Structure to design on (389 residues):
């Protein structure tokens, strides 16, 4: 057996000890029992439920047009490679027979409230991530069910009976693991990761299953011969931190299944953003089409927030840049008129380039477009009527 294999075994034994210590460090507080519930193809499923003519057909929830992006795709459409945040024109090319349905966020919001009412029967510790998914802490549940698995099964059954929709769920000792688990048996499935199985569950997973590992980070890890969580676990924590800073430390913790974040009920959104890292660095003047594309993605997410459980809208626009030498810059503006469309958001973000006081020859490896400064929609509109009426 090679040194790397022996190191992996030794590391695995030590890691198992560390994880068990984390999970059982205080006998007065049992391990958390976290459920991540994710509605299956939520927007598209609501449309198929409410219109029998759409059932078993490839449904794409999106406005048709050159600038539109996909909000959701049914599983029939996903077979053709269609997915959310994809340009609608590309979705149409991939699946010419798709039925395009404009989103109806008022209807989705009503179903989301119904589903969250089901959650609330079982626990008060509910952290919504969007209209269609949430974390639940059921370490102690309100219905007296014997296990977190039983709670998840009951919730899924109640969702099916009361909404005629399906949901998938993951059960695990923490949020990170529960979210991965909920995707394992989609659609309409349940997957459980028990504390004693955490390391075995994680080891074969590709590193891109870890939060924050996108295409660029995956390539950087591949340069270190790291393709799976097992590979990542063998790499020394200090080496990861040296190469990737605080995120390197976070990667090491995730490889051990460690995630100490608590479920935080009703956490307000502070910022919504989309960003992209380029294959080749670009000048400031070359960023406009990328800013427009990212603004489409950000605006679609903003609209979900605006029609979500809290109905909040953004007042500020954020432009994020990373130079070729990894210097990060952000520029923010709160315009007199808040952005009301993806194009308006893109135009404001593009003007923020004028506030970048770097030489024109500077090249950029990343650009991001975000919205921030969220306020309640009702209060904002009431104030606007007060001052303009």
């Amino acid at each position: 057996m090679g040194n790397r294999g022996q190191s992996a075994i030794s590391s695995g034994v030590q890691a198992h000890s560390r994880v068990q210590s984390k999970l059982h460090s205080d006998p007065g507080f049992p391990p958390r029992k976290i459920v991540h519930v994710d509605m299956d193809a939520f927007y598209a499923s609501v449309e198929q439920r409410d219109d029998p003519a759409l059932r078993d057909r490839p449904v794409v929830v999106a406005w048709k047009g050159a600038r539109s992006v996909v909000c959701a795709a049914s599983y029939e459409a996903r077979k053709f490679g269609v997915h959310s945040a994809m340009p609608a024109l590309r979705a149409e090319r991939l699946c010419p027979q798709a039925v395009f349905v404009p989103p109806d966020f008022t209807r989705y919001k009503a179903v989301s409230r119904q589903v969250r009412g089901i959650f609330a029967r079982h626990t008060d510790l509910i952290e919504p991530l969007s209209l269609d998914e949430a974390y639940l802490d059921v370490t102690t549940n309100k219905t007296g069910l014997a296990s977190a698995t039983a709670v998840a099964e009951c919730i899924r059954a109640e969702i099916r009976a009361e909404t005629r929709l399906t949901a998938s769920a993951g059960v695990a000792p923490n949020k990170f693991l529960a979210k991965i688990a909920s995707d394992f048996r989609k659609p309409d499935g349940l997957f459980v990761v028990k504390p004693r199985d955490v390391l075995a569950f994680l080891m074969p997973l590709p590193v891109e299953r870890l939060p924050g590992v996108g295409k660029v980070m995956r390539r950087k890890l591949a340069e270190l011969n790291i393709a799976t969580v097992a590979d990542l676990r063998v790499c020394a924590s200090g080496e990861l931190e040296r190469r990737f800073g605080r995120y390197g430390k976070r990667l090491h913790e995730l490889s051990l299944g460690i995630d100490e974040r608590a479920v935080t009920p009703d956490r307000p959104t502070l910022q919504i953003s989309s960003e992209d890292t380029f294959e080749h660095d670009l000048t400031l003047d070359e960023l406009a089409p990328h800013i427009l594309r990212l603004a489409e993605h950000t605006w679609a997410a903003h609209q979900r927030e605006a029609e979500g459980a809290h109905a909040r809208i953004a007042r500020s626009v954020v432009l994020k840049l990373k130079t070729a030498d990894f210097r990060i810059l952000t520029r923010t503006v709160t315009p007199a008129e808040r952005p009301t469309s993806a194009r308006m958001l893109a135009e404001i973000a593009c003007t923020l380039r004028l506030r970048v006081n770097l030489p024109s020859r500077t090249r950029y490896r990343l650009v991001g477009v975000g919205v921030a400064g969220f306020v309640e929609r009702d209060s904002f509109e009431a104030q606007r009527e007060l001052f303009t009426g």
About this structure: Residues 3-23 form the longest helix (21 residues). Confidence is low (pLDDT under 50) at residues 1-13, 23-29, 381-389. The radius of gyration is 23 Å.
